Amino acid sequence: MNESRSLPERLTDDLTADLSVSIAAVAIALVAFFLAPVGESVGNRFLLICTLGIFIPYAYGEYWPVEYSPTYAVVWTIAAGLVTSGLFIGVFAVAQSVLSSTAAGVVAFVATVCVQYGIAMVFPRVR
């Protein structure tokens, strides 16, 4: 990266590089925040929206080997969001039967992020 560019220029480039993915991920995260059955704790909901709104765009930008058109990128993001939400909610439900709600949220977060990055890193090798 050319370091002679100003910080605002670099920040603008980073924020708009995969804008369709970021917007779709934030929209999914907001829907999940209000609708996901992850207990009453705001902390659990925060962990879920982090996996959706932060880690999905990051995995797409850093690890995913294919750069799609904006429309396909949104479809990819929605699919990744559905898989991520399902995984988080499933792990949360199983962990909550053994652990407290807060601990179950942490376990679900760690498991989901590990699976997200595992898939994102293995996929390029499989293709």
UniProtKB/TrEMBL annotation:
<feature type="transmembrane region" description="Helical">
    <location>
        <begin position="101"/>
        <end position="123"/>
    </location>
</feature>
<feature type="transmembrane region" description="Helical">
    <location>
        <begin position="15"/>
        <end position="36"/>
    </location>
</feature>
<feature type="transmembrane region" description="Helical">
    <location>
        <begin position="42"/>
        <end position="60"/>
    </location>
</feature>
<keyword id="KW-1133">Transmembrane helix</keyword>
<feature type="transmembrane region" description="Helical">
    <location>
        <begin position="72"/>
        <end position="95"/>
    </location>
</feature>
<protein>
    <submittedName>
        <fullName>Uncharacterized protein</fullName>
    </submittedName>
</protein>
<keyword id="KW-0812">Transmembrane</keyword>
<keyword id="KW-0472">Membrane</keyword>
